[in-house]
Amino acid sequence: MTHATASGSPAISIRDRLIVALDVASADDARRAIAELSGSVGAFKIGLQLFAAAGPSLVREVCEGGHRIFLDLKFHDIPNTVAKAGVEAAKLGVWMFTVHAAGASEMMIRTAETVAEACDRGGFDRPKVIAVTVLTSSDANALRETGIVEGVEGQVARLAKVAANSGLDGVVASPRECELIRSAVEKRDFLIVTPGVRPISATSDDQKRISTPAAALRTGADHLVIGRPIMDAADRSNAVEKIVREIENELR
Question: What is the pLDDT of residue 209?
Fold first, then answer.
């Protein structure tokens, strides 16, 4: 079954929209998960834990093995530093990587332009650059602690527009803000990648702004990041198949 989102992106299969979060402690743990799930999902996410444990060599290895990698390190620094880090991520062969939208427009513009120029010169594929808006573990109280008083929705909409105007390919946001982003951003091919997605049978863990996979797709998400409901399952491949069936049944 295929599904086209509100972004107008081409219809692709449900499983190709799934990104499995490899939130594990070692390269061997990651390799086992990839072997179990190869061909069952669209991509794998490597975040801070695994990158700190295994480094860029694992990222390169997995990319060279033909797998799409979403490198989620949330770069946030001065523009020059983030732009250079983005180029190194591109050289590893990643499909997509994240920066923090809170780094503001100069940082995002510099990164998008520098990465595109480096890829053109080097003859390698340009990764998608997407911006993290508000972490799904945050709520209005957490934002107030950092001096942001307008609430989650206002902050997400503001940062999504800044990211789009800075030339980025999309944002990471809670599924609860997908419709808001679609209304705020005019670019129809603007990607929304949603963590905080849990199958109906799963617990919410430390995520506060969560949704089911089908609901996230219905409201405009392009890609769903799912970690523990798959990674903690006794049979990970079967867990993916259950999620795919759940989505297909809800979207009929």
Answer: 47
pTM for the structure as a whole: 0.90
Cα–Cα distance, 141 to 26 (Å, whole number): 34
- The CATH homologous superfamily to which domain 2-251 belongs is Aldolase class I (3.20.20.70)
Taking only Cα atoms into account, the Rg of the chain, rounded to an integer number of angstroms, comes to 17
Specify whether the CB–CB gap between 240 and 213 falls below 8 A. no
Contacts of 181 (CB under 8 A, 6+ apart): 156, 157, 160, 171, 173, 190, 192, 220
Work out the percent of the chain whose per-residue pLDDT is above 70: 91
* List of residues 6+ apart from 183 with CB closer than 8 A: none
Q: Which residues in 90-216 belong to E strands, given as ranges?
A: 96-100, 128-132, 170-172, 191-194
* Residue carrying the six token digits 């990698």: 69
Any idea which residues carry the catalytic annotation?
A: 74
Residue 185 clears pLDDT 50, i.e. is over it: yes
DSSP 205: T
Give residue limits of the domains in the chain.
2-251
Q: What is the pLDDT of residues 18-71, one digit of tens each?
A: 999 999 999 999 999 999 999 999 999 999 999 999 999 999 999 999 999 999
